[in-house]
Amino acid sequence: MEKLILSEDEIVRICHRLGKEIDQKIVENHNDIPVVVGVMNGALPFMYELVKHINSPIQLDTIKVSSYDGTASTGEVKVEKGPDHNLEGKDVYLVEDIIDTGVTMHFLKEYIKKMYKPRNLYVCILIKRNNIKMQYDEIADFTGLATDEQRYIVGFGFDYYGLFRNVPYVFVPSIKDIKAWENLLGDEHKI
After folding, report:
1. pLDDT surpassing 80 at residue 74
2. Contact 47, 60 (CB under 8 A)
3. 2-11, 78-87, 177-186: least confident range
4. Which of 46, 116, 146, 149 has a 20 to 30 A CA-CA distance from 158?
5. DSSP letter at 179?
6. Based on the structure, what is the number of domains in the chain?
């Protein structure tokens, strides 16, 4: 590990704070039961910790998109799985692990508004990267941590070719880590 970004304790504290903020918004809105939609696969650990701290009744759902190949964004977002719930007229809380370049979040917000017509669409993210390569300056309604860290991160949903989403903290891997992971994965995932 090169650098720890968020410890397990920090993540729980962030989820507690965000859960209370979302709970307050749900109570203020007085609408039907909201749907919390996690972006697969990266946001699932965050979503599952987050919803433990929301006291209001909610429904859970997922959407799956892809825009990364290993450690780099492809710049193109594709929907692989849509939500199962009818989101029309509902308050939707979209839960994502990170806003990096803004490409995925910009796409998701436009896609969900157009395809599912929610009453309100709120965005909750674990990490907002103050990215020098920002293409869309997407703002989240609920943000866990804003960081200037530009290096690739792993853990708590963030992965390296599908590995290490289960690590309970977020970190910048070292070059030694990445070389070990390449050996573990084999030739097809070498940088």
Report:
1. no
2. yes
3. 177-186
4. 116
5. H
6. 1
Enclosing domain of residue 149: 3-189
Strand partners, 61: 37
Cα separations in angstroms, 115 against 59, 77, 88, 108 = 19, 15, 9, 10
Quote the pTM value: 0.92
* From 23, 32, 61, 100, the catalytic residue: 100
| Rounded average pLDDT over 70-94 | 86
- Check if 187 is active-site: no
- To the nearest 5 percent, what fractions of the chain are helix, strand and coil? 30, 35, 35
Closest CA to 33 of 118, 117, 110: 118
Q: Kindly report the CATH number assigned to the domain that includes residue 95.
A: 3.40.50.2020
